[in-house]
Amino acid sequence: MNSFFGLNVGVKSLFASQAALNTINHNISNADTVGYSRQVVSQKASRALSTSNGSGMVGTGVNIESIVQIRNVFLDQRYWQENAQYGEYSIKSDSLSELESLLSGASDDGLDDALNSFTSAMEDLANDPSDDSARSALVAEGSALCEYLNNTYGTLEDLLDENNSAVKSKVDEINSLAKQIGALNQQIYKAESIGDTANDLRDQRTVLINQLSGIADIEVKEVSNGTLANGKKDLRFSVKINGVSLVNHFSVNELECSENSDGTYGVQWAETGNEVSFSGGEIKGYLDMCQGDGSDGGVKGIPYYMNQLNTFARSLAKAYNEGVYADGESHSSGHAGGVGLDESTGVRFFSYEEKSTAELMNNGTDMDGIYANITAGNLSLSSDVLNDTDKIAASSTAGEAENSDNLTELIGLFDDSEVFDNGTPDDYINAVYATMAIETALASRLANIHENVVELIDSHKTSISGVSLDEETSNLIKYQMAYSAAAKVISVLDEILDVTINSLGAG
């Protein structure tokens, strides 16, 4: 053991304290950096040496093993799982709330009001069947009812288009994040394969994974694929969606949109064309809102409520025109069975796109086929009654201008519980509102639950990985004192060596 042994131990102590101080400085500088994980210097006592006389071992100081991140992988995985669920239900909650606002507005002063105004106009005409002004008022109120349904349906179409466009945007965002993650994988692998630490690059990658987890439900793994030349593990990082690799080490498997027959987007793997199945994330929320028609007990998205409005418009028109209810049976003669002021009969009051009775009835092989052409978006009065109010069939008998029996029967339709499967026209539309309220409340409740869990996990992660300025300040003082002590040891040893060498030289 030479005379400079103590100096070597002191220098190693200086380097270790200096590395710790630099790391603390780095932590403090990034205390507010999004996604930054606290780093610490991992130190270990260096291998001791045996004494020359075999009486024991002499310590050789400290070695710096690495600079490590303080992270909890389990919490990261839990965060990504919950964030996907929160992303899905937050989108559903927002979309359904917007939908509920639109349709519940119909309940307060829209569709219900239009129906009431229409039936009031019918009652006024029934009191004086030959009054031209009452006939014109009925046409106006009938047109207002149709226009309200047209506008409401058009707004739902706009909302559907917005959600559909969001699907495309989210696919582009997933591809962009995947490419960035793949690029970071290359940088991290290159740095760590030559023995460097890539903690900051790993933090950047985690931030991207956090963003991606909110968009799609992902599986994240980092597995060892053997050993590198430097003895470290050959780590490979992958991100999967429903078992299929989106990012596999350096390679990226991109997604693309495919257009369905109804104009909505589906999502598929660009390389294989296979459909992508999402189990969570914002994109799952958007897809469900765009494609959920409620069939087979499935998700009730925008198409479901559009179909409900279509059924309402179609069934109301068929019941009013033909007297045929939801059970397919004829319960009255309908408007077509009545007689107009001009002695006309067989005239349909409701149609679509202002088509005449003849045009309406010629577009279908049976009653269901004919009325399948009517939607909430195109419901209108027939051109017959629009152009000539005398064709409104108030009478049940020809030659009786003051007869309003047919119109009275039509008024009764709006209180008939057999018109729709679930009751009167009011009952039907109120059932739609009730379903909407339940679905919205459920989505909102689930969004709140998952949001709270995400915040709880994030708080726990921060308590482990986040930078505490108080703790770093304490460590700063500790390592400053250690550095000063090591420097003092070196100074003392230097003096001892100086005296020893100079004394020997003097001798």
Descriptive keywords:
13 helices; single chain; two-stranded antiparallel sheet; 4-stranded antiparallel beta sheet; alpha+beta; 507 residues
Protein described:
The protein is α+β, with helices and mostly antiparallel strands and 507 residues long. Helix content is 58%, strand content 12%. The chain has 13 helices and twelve strands. Strand 2 and strand 3 form a beta hairpin. Helix 2 packs parallel to helix 3, helix 2 packs parallel to helix 6 and helix 2 packs antiparallel against helix 12. The longest helix is centred in the N-terminal third of the chain and has 62 residues.
Outline the fold blueprint.
Blueprint: H1 5-29, E1 39-45, E2 49-50, E3 57-58, E4 62-69, H2 73-109, H3 111-127, H4 132-193, H5 199-215, E5 219-227, E6 233-241, E7 244-248, E8 251-252, E9 255-259, E10 265-269, H6 282-291, H7 302-322, E11 350-352, H8 357-362, H9 367-371, E12 379-381, H10 383-387, H11 405-413, H12 425-465, H13 469-506
Antiparallel strand pairs: 1-4, 2-3, 5-6, 6-7, 7-8, 9-10, 11-12
Helix pairs in contact: 1-13, 2-3, 2-4, 2-5, 2-6, 2-12, 3-4, 3-11, 4-5, 4-6, 4-7, 7-12
